[in-house]
Sequence to fold (288 residues):
Amino acid sequence: MPIIGSVELASLGIRISRSENLPVLSQSATAVLKLVDNHDAGPRDIEAAIAKDPAITAKILKAANSAYYGGVKVPTVGRAVQFLGMNSVRSLVVGIAFQQMTSGKGETPSFNKLEFWKHSLAVATASRILGRIRVPDRAEELYCAGVMHDVGMLVLDRFMPVEFQAALTSCKTSKRPLYEVEQKAYQFDHAAVGALLAEHWHLTPLMHCAIQYHHNPMRDENCFETTKIVAAADAIAHKCGFTNSVEGSVHDLASDLCGITGLSEEHMEKVMSLVMTEVEQAQVALQM
Fold:
């Protein structure tokens, strides 16, 4: 039984910086994330980074040729970058890489990695939709943040499966949000753990903040507007039935989505309907 609380969180931080057994963001995905934010990089640089990973290359071509992306014939990654744009390709690469990370059986009995991935995809989709409405130039980066917002759960599943299982069980029986149960059980939550991993991966400030504060966006002093979008997207995903192994728990932002997003109830209903449709289409495109 590990020591819990701040000591254990610090210990997890050390293990994150040193462990070879953590979920690994592929080199191609890491390179693409850096290149998109580099004003001197171009489509050919993105193509070269992706080409180093045959598995991601194959999936990108499969997805780029799917109905979800318009069904246009795209024979090469270079053409995919030209057709979809660098930001959209970044989202696609991150989504595929994260899907690879979540494959296989977890250590925690109640932690279903397929449900985890579906929830992550739903939050990413909702983040992109809300982003297009509120901050169009950050919509694809918000998609990436949505994909990885709960990445801390993968670390807890790897290093603290007993404690994580107890938290999941308590969450279901108490109907309380998982992060509240975690804070009571071991004095930190999966968002804090995810922030350690975001720092280790050198993710952008927007993504780092969204991972750390998606349950408490008011605490984010640097990226409040975008973190608020990911937090709202998380609540939308839960309302759409993508509950990430914590069915029955009450998401604390679900009751005031209109107030959080500034959208009317009618518009919110349309957003939720669009999320359901796009998640279904994305599952086909990503071969889920």
